[in-house]
Design goal:
The radius of gyration is 23 Å and the shape is elongated. The chain has one domain (23-142). α1 (9-49) runs parallel beside α3 and α2 (57-77) crosses α5 (121-142). It has helices spanning 9-49, 57-77, 87-97, 100-108, 121-142. The protein contains 5 helices and no strands. It has 145 residues and is an all-alpha fold. 72% of the residues lie in helices and 0% in strands.
């Protein structure tokens, strides 16, 4: 009769492969989160660069809306890696990196500057409302009272 002995080598290989897969997944997840945070930080810096004595409304709104679109696109693309990470956490990071005058401007949700072309007024008001909606929850959490 032939005796069979237990060989643990295949089980060790499977275990090592599973650990490597787990580590690879979480490494990629952290890279995706880092990339999103970096892009949002760049947009916050862009917003902060538009600060002058009176806020130049249109570039700030545009930068905030771009940040919103970047976040939405990244979530759709990398949702497998962002299961437990909520979009609001990224919005909070973006909000906290904005200059306080921008967050105050978004909080007021008022259009102070009138565009040269009056037909752009409704578009700009909608953009301001969208920027306000994007940051509203963060504003409620972190706004200085």
């Amino acid at each position: 009769m032939c005796e069979r002995t237990f060989d643990p080598t295949p089980w060790i290989a499977v275990l090592i492969s599973a650990v490597a897969l787990f580590v690879g997944y979480y490494t990629l997840r952290l890279q995706v989160i880092s990339t999103i945070e970096e892009k949002l930080t760049d947009k916050a810096k862009e917003c902060n660069n538009h600060i002058v004595a009176v806020i130049q409304s249109f570039p700030v709104e545009t930068s905030i809306l771009y940040a919103s679109h970047i976040l939405d696109l990244q979530y759709k693309t990398y949702k497998v890696f962002l299961l437990a990470r909520k979009q609001q956490a990224f919005k909070d990071i973006f909000y906290l990196k904005l200059h306080t005058s921008i967050s105050e401007y978004v909080h007021r949700n008022q259009l102070k500057l009138v565009p040269d072309n009056l037909s752009l007024g409704p578009i700009i008001k909608r953009q301001l409302q969208d920027a306000h909606n994007f940051l509203e929850e963060s504003d409620l959490k972190f706004r200085f009272k």
